[in-house]
Amino acid sequence: MAIVGDTKKRILLTGGIRSGKSAYALELASLMGKQKVFLATAEALDDEMNLRIKNHQLERGDEYQTIEEPLYIADRLKEVGARDVIIIDCLTLWVNNLMFKLGNDEVKMQEQKDKFFDFLKQPTCSIIMVTNEVGLGVIPENKLSRQYINMLGRLNQDVARISDEMIMMISGIAQQIKKEL
User: Fold this and answer.
1) Residue 87 is part of which domain span?
2) Cys-Cys link to 93, which of 28, 41, 80, 104 (CB 3.0-4.6 A)?
3) Is position 56 annotated as part of the catalytic site?
């Protein structure tokens, strides 16, 4: 497991659905300090998602300041102030939210991504970002799904490039993909 000292690190956790990314993010954050923030991008749009959100909240307990923000994550991250670590869970749903809430307004979507990367370039603390790996599946049949996969795939590549560490979760096992000293 990666252990972070006093330096601010950007760590990307990727993997398939239910691969253990969120649990590993919590475990990793527990080694990084006491002042922890959890930025959740999910919205409870149905009963199943509502249950997943509640289970994640129980898993975190009261150790975290929780911020729920489906769209404007960079603005919310700037408001956080001095902390030890922030978990962003997850970029996958953030991209989904951008597409469906902002529609085809690529200018507004790019504006949100640019703000996010501006924050990542000069983080106020360590950041653990959770995302789904979409590059291992088949090409979707419908256009909207292809647009989503393309947008998320590009975002994941850009985040991986700027990250100090990248870890891929496979069936609950962490595999270090990138580590800059």
Assistant:
1) 10-179
2) 41
3) yes
Domain count across the chain: 1
Dihedral angle of Cα 177, 30, 156, 116, to the nearest 10 degrees: -140
Residue 5 in any domain: the answer is no
* Each residue's pLDDT expressed in tens, for the chain with a length of 181 residues: 545 455 789 999 999 998 999 999 999 999 999 999 999 998 877 888 788 778 777 877 788 999 999 999 999 999 988 899 999 999 999 999 999 998 878 899 999 999 999 999 999 899 999 999 998 888 889 999 999 999 999 999 999 999 999 999 999 999 999 998 7
Is residue 3 in a domain?
no
- Does residue 157 lie within any of the structural domains? yes
d(CA 138, CA 52): 26
